[in-house]
Amino acid sequence: MMPTQKTKKILFWLGLSLPMLALVAMTWLVHQTGGQFNNSFNFVMQTYKLLDALEQTQSHIVDAEANQRGYFLTGRQDYIEPYQHAMQAIRDDLVELKKLTIHDASQQSNLVLLEKLVNEELVFDPATVFVPGQTTTNASVVTLTERGKLKLEHMRRILFQAHEEQQQALSKQQQRAEEDVVSSQMMSLVLIVAVAMALIMVVVILLRLEKLQEFVTVCAWTGQVKFQGQWLRLDEYLKKQFGISVSHSLSQEASEKMMREIEELNRPENRPPPAP
Predict the structure, then answer these.
(1) Counting Cβ atoms within 10 Å, is residue 163 exposed (0-12), middle (13-18) or buried (19+)?
(2) Which residues pair with 217 in a beta bridge?
(3) Other Cβ atoms closer than 10 A to 122
(4) pTM above 0.70?
(5) Most CB atoms within 10 A, among 139, 209, 242, 255?
(6) How high is the mean pLDDT in each 10-residue block of the chain (276 residues)?
(7) pLDDT for the residue 156
(8) How remote is the C-alpha of 144 from its chain's centroid?
């Protein structure tokens, strides 16, 4: 069954519009994919930076507590300078962590709690803690050691919670990134199919135009058209070649000629004699 003229027009405009729409959609898809990739990359890099900062903070807290406990037990000034360096590192770490988690309310809460514990448990004035001549007993050593362990346990718990929350956020981000990749692949496949269909339509249109450009052989005597080795009437040729249905009528010239012939036959001198 040959397509109708309306169907051909629809195919023609689809063949022209689909590549343009596919091009626009692919441009948008590339832009979206690039933005998603940049966001995921930035998030992953910031997450690893945050995790590294958490580990450094924990290491500095351990150093500060160890030097604090060493000073409490011995009163030696050798522990003060390492303690002060560790405390300054902790303060710098907290500032950096707050910058990295500025948009994360949960992590900000963890840092507030951690900073509070640091100020309560690790900050001290060496001049008011150690009394010259004081003797360290086994009981005081055990007490300070147990208290130091408890301090570290509380701070490690907060750091562990912050670490786990960030790991969960990273896992969710990776899952979203995978879903975005699958979605982008599906959209790319749909666009490829659309472009392929558009190309097929364009090829069909070009083939039809090529047929239109072919020379048509017309009989000079009968007006028939030669098509695939057969001589066809013009209406048959149009029907087979282009699917065009033809209706018959009379032109002005043909109708005037027919009227003249009828009038000529109706003249008295041209009438046949009556039968005897």
Answers:
(1) middle
(2) 226
(3) 19
(4) no
(5) 242
(6) 56 65 71 71 83 90 87 83 92 92 88 89 73 46 65 83 84 77 74 72 67 70 82 81 73 79 69 57
(7) 84
(8) 56
pLDDT value, residue 271: 57
Q: For residue 112, give both structure tokens.
A: 């507030």
Q: Which two tokens stand for residue 270?
A: 């041209």
**How many Cβ atoms are within 10 Å of 205's Cβ, its own excluded?**
16
CA-wise closest residue to 200 among 9, 12, 2: 12
Q: Which residue type, as a one-letter code, is found at position 90?
A: I
Q: Is 20 exposed, middle or buried (0-12, 13-18, 19+ CB in 10 A)?
A: exposed
Domain assignments of the chain as residue spans, ordered by start: 5-207, 215-276
Distance CA 117, CA 152 (A): 10
How many C-beta atoms lie closer than 10 Å to residue 68's C-beta?
25
Provide the residue type at 66 as one letter.
A
Q: H or E element: which one contains 232?
A: strand 230-232
